[in-house]
């Protein structure tokens, strides 16, 4: 694999790591209620476990209440049970076909726990990016060892990969800071 491909491959994988990190951040609750918090809840739908959003319309009723409107009559009880059994710590209530999920207010202690969780997720993402840097550098060293690239090309490539790594780590830091700000905002 040529050096150019190694750099492109490393950058593409780092981009994927950041996208994965962003996806993980959406699962962490902030002070505002977000309907995507129910994406982690799966319900039995004719023998297959599917997300609630695939069997019901999930939306906000007000700033602290999520509404879940099942598309089929018989799914209401199953969805309500799945939400209650999830680790979200919420107690849904059924009003005819509509399921209301009131979200409790977050305490200061819970907010601090969530910021620690966000920092931990950020560190995990940074480790993934650094591992990709290491893999790219090792691939270039192997090319030099096999006499397919010069040491000058190796140094240039390592410098370029380090710049890309620094850029991705800075992006992760920005995402962590923004999420912490959202969590601590009352």
Automatic annotation (TrEMBL):
SUPFAM superfamilies: Ribosome recycling factor, RRF. The keyword ATP-binding does not apply. Pfam families: RRF. Residues 21-184 form the Ribosome recycling factor domain. It is found in: Cytoplasm. InterPro entries: Ribosome_recyc_fac (IPR002661), Ribosome_recyc_fac_dom (IPR023584), RRF_sf (IPR036191). Its main location: cytoplasm. Keywords: Cytoplasm, Protein biosynthesis. PANTHER family: MITOCHONDRIAL RIBOSOME RECYCLING FACTOR PSEUDO 1, RIBOSOME RECYCLING FACTOR. NCBIfam families: frr. Responsible for the release of ribosomes from messenger RNA at the termination of protein biosynthesis. May increase the efficiency of translation by recycling ribosomes from one round of translation to another. Belongs to the RRF family. HAMAP family: RRF. This is Ribosome-recycling factor. The gene is frr.
């Amino acid at each position: 694999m040529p050096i150019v491909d190694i750099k492109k491959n490393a950058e593409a994988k780092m981009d994927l790591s950041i996208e994965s990190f962003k996806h993980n951040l959406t699962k962490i609750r902030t002070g505002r209620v977000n309907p995507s918090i129910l994406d982690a809840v799966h319900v039995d739908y004719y023998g297959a476990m599917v997300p609630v959003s695939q069997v019901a319309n999930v939306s906000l009723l007000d700033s602290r209440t999520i509404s879940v409107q099942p598309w089929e009559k018989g799914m209401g009880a199953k969805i309500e049970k799945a939400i209650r059994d999830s680790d979200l710590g919420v107690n849904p209530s059924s009003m005819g076909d509509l399921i209301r999920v009131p979200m409790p207010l977050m305490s200061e202690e819970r907010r601090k726990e969530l910021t620690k969780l966000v920092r931990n997720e950020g560190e995990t993402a940074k480790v993934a990016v650094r591992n990709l840097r290491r893999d790219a550098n090792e691939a270039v060293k192997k090319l030099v060892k096999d006499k397919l690239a010069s040491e000058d090309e190796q140094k240039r490539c390592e410098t370029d990969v380090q710049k890309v790594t620094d850029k991705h780590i800075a992006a992760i830091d920005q995402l962590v800071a923004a999420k912490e700000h959202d969590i601590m905002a009352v």
